Amino acid sequence: MSKDPNTIKTSEHEINEITIESPKTTEPTDISQILADSHDNILPFHKVIVVFLALASSLFLSFIDQSGLTISLPFIAKELNAQETISWAGTSSLIGQTTFMILFGRFSDIFSRKYVIILSILILALADLSCGFATKSYQFYIFRSFAGIGNGGIMSLSMMITSDIISLEQRGVYQGIMGSFVGLGNIAGPFLSSGFININLENLKCWRYFYYLIAPLLIIDAVLLWVFVPFTHHKQDFTKQLKQIDSWGFLSSSVSIIFFLIPISGGGSTFNWSSPLVISFFIISFISLIVFIIIELNFAKLPMIPIYLFHTKPSLTFLFSHNFFFGISYFGMLYYIPYYLQLIRGYSSIDSSKFLLCLTIPTMISSFIGGYEVSRSKRYWYVIWTGYILWTIGICLLSLWNEHSSIVPIIASLIISGFGVGCIFQPTLIALQAHSFRKDRAVVITIRNMLRGLGGCVGLSVSSTILSNFYIKKLNSSEGFKLFTKSEILNLEREIYTKFSLDLYTSKQIEFLKRIYMESLKNVFYLWIACIIYCLFTNATVRDHGLESIDGEKKSDEETSSNQEKA
User: Fold this and answer.
1) In this structure, are 310 and 295 located in the same domain?
2) Do residues 422 and 469 share a domain?
3) End-to-end Cα spacing for the chain
4) What is the pLDDT of residues 400-415, one digit of tens each?
5) Which parts pass through the membrane (predicted)?
6) What is d(CA 29, CA 211) in angstroms, rounded to the nearest whole number?
7) How is the chain split among helix, strand and coil, in percent rounded to 5?
8) How many Cα atoms occupy the beta-carbon half-sphere of 206 within 13 Å?
9) Is 166:42 a contact under the CB 8 Å cutoff?
10) What's the pLDDT tens digit per position in 362-389?
């Protein structure tokens, strides 16, 4: 057999290295298509399983890291004396995730998917270890932002590599299984975190053991990926590779995102909305966004975000917008449901984790069933519709929650929402790939994840602002001054995200606090409900043309698989 540099070696059943070398006689006219083609690597079943399990384990650990934080927030706030700013723990992670998410798609196209995902895992491992050693709140927030960078890379690259090695027709099943691993991570994270906390409730440092455990597991997973994941890349000079990076696009987008999210996160609490700092941050963010769009349209050889993706097809545009809006609701539920259970209902961290099972287990089940059904029927439309209808019903049931609710409406809303979430997350990704070109596959995944992360970041920030502002307003009302002294009110404002001690207050004071907490949180629920209702109604614009990308990925994948079988 001749050693043609353009030959993909998977036909010889070797997955150690796949190198695509462009012809020396002609210069490629569409570098994005050349780079995308260099990563196509449909593997036989027995090799898919090995690679897929290595990728799924990465995603599993990533979501353990993200979901475990939600349970430990009150304890972290108390130890680091960060009662007023602890909401930044989640926000900083999502800022890091959202800012760098754009970079992963093109980086993996230019260099290698394998190298980028391993780098992301190592960043997350180092960040988690650093979180365990943090002694100041600002240190913890910085390390969580780096954890967000690592998590963003893992989420994007695991989906990209899955898309590279599995045909679009079969991708529904595997993406569904991937969603199940996400659900498992969301189950394991809270239980691991609460397990360490409950070792000794008096020892505020117990939450640190969670991060000491995750870091070495991530290192082991990085080794597994190094061994089993195929190395694919477009062989060219390293200097040429660096020149293809849209550095000015990345810089302008990063400035726009960061200068937008910081005032959104701190407005009304850390910063005054009318302050010159907040206004100047928004102006810088807007100008940077305009600069980014100009760069992407006119100057970038390999745009970080091709602008045409947002205006060529209404279905694609609305699918992208859905990820932003259901990101607001989904991340909000993960962070604020434990808040409701612990601060308002008085449940322990381990009991809060048990309630979250009602959300995560249905998500895991419906993700697998939905993915299988998409692959079986070659359609995604009715699976996504089912998801939005269920999620709308479940999230509307949150309006029935109060400080004295029985567990029935709580469990019912979580279970119904969970089944809805599982039918949406992975099928919408498949829908996005079916509505886009093969050359944009990696970019579409990163844009989807970035918008979902951005939605989560904006959602957490806006939710925090709504809750804290409404709570402080009620606390400083005439009723509040009748029950508390001025110094007590100031102390309660500082400890808004900390579980208050029942021993310090009378039954009447406790009843008042729980009531205003619940009223404040209900305003947050209404934000989530509005977002999901938007997704439900605008889903009518999405057309289902089957599991075939615009330029015929289905045909290409079938031909590749057929050639490999013959070989």
Assistant:
1) no
2) yes
3) 11
4) 998 888 888 899 999 9
5) 48-65, 85-104, 116-135, 141-161, 173-197, 209-229, 250-271, 277-295, 316-341, 353-374, 381-401, 407-432, 453-472, 525-542
6) 47
7) 75, 0, 20
8) 18
9) yes
10) 998 998 898 888 888 888 888 999 999 9
